[in-house]
Amino acid sequence: MTGNLLHAWKAYNYHRVEGTGVPEWVLECFDRVSENLSDILAGPPPGDPSTAIAEALEMLPDGPSVFWTYKNNKQLRYVDAVLTRIEEGDQPTYAIQSVAREQGVSESTVRRAWRAFTVTVSGTP
Question: Does the structure show a pLDDT above 70 at 14?
Fold first, then answer.
């Protein structure tokens, strides 16, 4: 999707809530991070362990933090809001309409973001 591991976590959460199978690309991300963390356990690196852990979790970017990048992506904000409404019991169509109203954008803008997310989490990023 973007190289930001937070997308894999969001996809994992989505599939757990929906009760559907977690896509292979998400599991591959988790396998890779698990391997990175195992390497640290095998021989702790010199220096600050928090840097090594952040690197193993693929959360040590060259630019802005993965959290800043994730939170400042408008489409992901729309998707997060739709997911929250669905988790609270709303149907996707109603959730999209509500989020569009709340965010002051068109339904088609939120629907496009939602469609892109559902395509990504169901297959390859």
Answer: yes
